[in-house]
Amino acid sequence: MVKDAKIIDISYDYAPIIKMDPTLFINRVKYQSIHDIERYGKYLVFILDTDAMIMHMRMEGKFYIKKINDHVSSHEHVIFSFSDGRQMRYHDVRKFGTIHLLDKNSYKNQYPINGLGKEPKDLDPLDFYQLIHHRKTAIKNVLLNQHIISGLGNIYVDETLFLSGIHPKRLANKITKKEASKLVTSAREVLDKAIALGGSTIRSYTSSLGVHGRFQNELNVHTKFGEPCPKCQNTIVKMKVGGRTSYVCESCQK
DNA sequence: AGATGGACCCGTACGC
DNA sequence: TGCGTACGGGTCCATC
Q1: Domain span at residue A143?
Q2: Fewer CB atoms inside 10 A, N or C side of chain A?
Q3: Does A115 fall in a domain?
Q4: How many whole angstroms separate alpha carbon A81 and alpha carbon A26?
Q5: How many domains is chain A built from?
Q6: Does residue A244 approach strand C to less than 7 Å at its CB?
């Protein structure tokens, strides 16, 4: 529980994660308290006294709460020390995560939060159709575009497309209203189930508590190259779509 | 407007 | 055993 924790110091060993001058960042965050934590798509937002600290943890970033004397892992890149002796440590093997600091009164209107699309659970299926029906790119690119619909990554897009019976290379402007609706409801289903099972541990992802997810056991197509489709037994194929590895049952997905 | 490819990073899984 | 290399994840950016 970090709510109401007061940050009295910050250290880092890898500056590029902090998307501003690190000294400025430290001076601004120091002595502010964490009042709330919000989430927008894949971004986590710590609401402080006057600022909003906006985190993106990419694929495997996570926060650990430890004691000040606990061993510091070489993958812990930003350490927030609290007044109560605990530390909140940002752990990121790939160093891909980002931290932005913005005024808490206006961060929603600024990059990186301002351009985000709605999440599947908040997106009206007909609105989704309106957003995509003029787009000439592959439907998979649309589903991965956080400015159109937020919250889906590569794994969950593959699963959403499978449940919808739609091929990742289908052009967005060829998607019918009925199919657009199916995509939104499938995306909700995929995310709800993945969240309930603690996410997908495919490479090295674990939760902040080091717990492995279990959704990888429920995957229908993603990573299933060469295996039979759970619906029709056709062999699942692997291909690139928009530069991203994609797994498809070409018998079920048209 | 859209597609493409590179950049960022490094543990893992390979091939030799 | 040890080395080299490809890969992938999310996002931005330059270029076509």
Answers
A1: 120-248
A2: N
A3: no
A4: 11
A5: 2
A6: yes
Task: Look at strands A237-241 and A86-91 and give their pairing.
Answer: unpaired
Domain membership flag for residue A15: yes
* CA A159/CA A180 separation, integer angstroms: 15
How far is the C-alpha of A164 from the C-alpha of A158, rounded, in Å?
A: 10
Could you check: is the Cβ of residue A153 within 7 Å of any atom of nucleic acid strand C? yes
Instruction: Answer yes or no: do A100 and A126 share one domain.
Output: no
- Asked whether the beta carbons of A47 and A41 are under 8 A apart, the reply is no
Average pLDDT taken over every residue of chain A: 91
What CATH number did the domain enclosing A59 receive? 3.20.190.10
Model confidence at A211, pLDDT cuts 50, 70, 90, reads low
Examine the domain organization and report whether A15 and A59 are in the same domain: yes
* Domain C-terminal end among A74, A109, A144: A109
Q: CA–C1' span, A47 to C3, in Å?
A: 48
- A2 within domain boundaries: no
The phi-psi region of residue A214 (left if phi > 0; otherwise alpha if psi is between -120 and 50; otherwise beta) is: alpha
Angstrom distance, A68 CA to C14 C1': 44
pLDDT of A20 > 80? The answer is: yes
Q: Which nucleotides of B are covered by protein (CB under 7 A)?
A: 1-6, 8-12
Nucleic strand B near CB of residue A13 (< 7 Å)? no
Reported as a single tens digit per residue, the pLDDT across A105-129 is 999 999 999 889 999 999 999 999 9
* Token couple for A53: 């600290």
Give, in Å, how far the C1' of C6 lies from the CA of A245: 14
What is the spatial distance between Cα A109 and Cα A105, in angstroms, rounded to a whole number?
9
Q: Which token pair is A169? A: 């290379």
Q: Is residue A232 part of a domain?
A: yes
A138 touches strand B (CB under 7 A): yes
